Each structure stands twice: as structure tokens, then as C-alpha cells.
Amino acid sequence: RQLKRNQALSPIEVQDLLLLSWQEDLYNQTIRYLSLRPHSQKEIRDYLSRRIFVIKRKSLDAKLAEEMDLEKNLPTLINKIIDRLKGNKFIDDREFSRWLIRQRLTYRPRGKRALLIELRQKGVDKEVTDEVMADESVFSAEAEEKTAQKLAEKIWKNFKLTKGSKPEIIYKYRQRLWQRLISRGFSYNLVKTIVDDLLHKE
């Protein structure tokens, strides 16, 4: 409702206005946070949960802010901000998943298993991850194989083995390469193919 000049407000009304002010501040802070890179809905919820207590400490009416039951009001406050962000297309777990997969394949190579684990850790629903992974413009077996191959070649080159290295030395580094690729989330069968092909060329 619209306020009038010199209007007396009840404690509840003052708290409601303070919550409204916090909501606006949090929304604007989140927009700035999202401008750095995309985030999942869960990441934004976690961010808002942290920021609300910072805003509370900096509140002009510290006494009133201290008296407010944040545990009671926090879920509603966060849900309102999340709904507004989603409505304005600032957060979208499908778009976030596409972005993260492309980023990882390009800059931090990893396989399908590791990508799925990371997306789940960031709170993206299985239904969404399955849908995005099924989109071959985002992720495909061919793209995963090329990524694994490039990574394997880079790792092997960094071992700096000389021609004529003893078989036991080659075996030792082969095992290291194998472990590195598996730890990046590539499947057993893919790693076997990549490593065998690479060593055959060597």
C-alpha cells in the first residue's frame, strides 16, 4: 500500500518495509553477481543465504534488524528473489548446464561422468542434466573422444619421455596417464582406446 506523510507504522509494517528494502538490495546484488558468470539456481540460493546476513549487519536500523526472525522470513524472501530472477531470465538451469559443459570441454577437459557429477553438485536436477546431455550440439560422444584425446596427448607430452625409454618406465607413465584420464570422468572403454592408440603411435 502507498504510504502517507507522517503516517504511523506498526512494528510489523516497519519490518515488512525493511524486508522489502533488503529484497531489492539482494536482487540488485545478485544481478551483479550473475554478470560475472552464469550460476545455477542452487548457487544463487546459497549466495542469497550468505548475503542476507551481511545486509542485516549493515542495516541502518540495527536494533530492528536484530529483532527480526530471519529464520522465519528467509525462505520466503529468497523464493521471491529467485522467482523474479527466473521471470527475467537471469537464471535458467538448462542454459547454465549448457554453458558449464561447453566451458569444461574447452578449458578444463573432463568426461561425461565428471560433468554429470559437477552439475548435480551445483543442484541441477537429473531431468535437466539428462536433457542437456542428450543435445548433441552441447555434448556428444565424438566431442568427448576428441577432448580425451587432446588431454591425453598433452599429459603424455608433459611426461617428457625420451625415445628408447625402458618398457617398465613406459608402463609406469601409461598407468599415470590412465589414472589421470579416469579421474577426469572419462569412461574405462574410452580411456583404454585413447591410451592404446596414443602408445601405438609412440
From TrEMBL:
Coarse class of the protein's main subcellular location: cytoplasm
Protein name per its UniProtKB record: Regulatory protein RecX
Keyword Cytoplasm: yes
Any Gene Ontology CC annotation: cytoplasm
Subcellular location: Cytoplasm
Origin superkingdom: Bacteria
Keyword annotations: Cytoplasm
Domain RecX first three-helical: start-end pairs: 27-51
Family in the record: Belongs to the RecX family.
UniProt domain RecX second three-helical: residue ranges: 92-133
GO BP annotation list: regulation of DNA repair
Pfam families cross-referenced by the UniProt entry: RecX_HTH1, RecX_HTH2
